[in-house]
Amino acid sequence: MSEYNILDRYMKKGRIIFLIGFIIFLLVALFLSYKNEDKGNISNQTEETDVNYVGNDIDEHGCRESAGYLWCVPKNKCLRIWEESCYIDTEEEIKYILAGKYRKEINTVKVSINKSTQDYISGSVSFGNGEGGIFLARRQGNMWEVVYDGNGSIDCIKMRQIYGFPDEILKPNFCD
To answer: N- or C-end of the chain: fewer Cβ atoms within 10 A?
Structure first.
């Protein structure tokens, strides 16, 4: 009889272990199905929101920046600046740069180029209300960069060493 009691106890323990294992299995299955429902909800939410795809970068003027198109105010169109210049000439480009920097209406800005080489220019600017000054600019690629503008003294060493300005632009008006 004692042999039967031992076997009976193992059978009861086996059923209990089986039952606990089955309950754990059901809980894991329930948990995984809940997680899959959440993922379904997230993917539905993503479809409803705007997704920024490559090439989906059209600005307010209709220019696609990822393709290199930028809005050109003077020509009133989108263009690639390495294919077509936005400005009629250098004076117009400097005029737009300084008008933008000082938030002036373009028709109030007057630019005069006094000296120029292929890559460097010096000149003066006036804003129509008595304000104005001088400027130095250099060509960077196919665009101009104004590296100095104002009425103060110019750091001639900096202009020569950092920006590479030649003396034919800097002398005699800026650096003696």
So the answer is: N
The CATH number fitting domain 90-170, selected from 3.30.9, 3.40.1350, 3.80.10, 3.30.200: 3.30.200
Question: The pTM is what?
Answer: 0.60
Burial 96-129 (b: 16+ CB within 10 A, else e): bbbbeeeebeeeebebeeebeeeebbbbebebee
Amino acid identity, residue 140? Q
**pLDDT tens per residue, range 131-143:** 899 999 999 888 8
- The pair of structure tokens assigned to 69 is 């198109």
pLDDT in tens, 154-169: 999 999 999 999 999 9
Length of the chain: 176
- Sheet hosting strand 110-116, strand order edge to edge: 110-116, 120-126, 132-140, 143-150
Is residue 102 within 8 A of residue 118, CB to CB? The reply is: no
Contact 94, 145 (CB under 8 A): no
**Dihedral sign (CA 160, 163, 169, 175):** negative
Sorted by sequence, the CB contacts under 8 Å of residue 35 that are 6+ apart come out as none
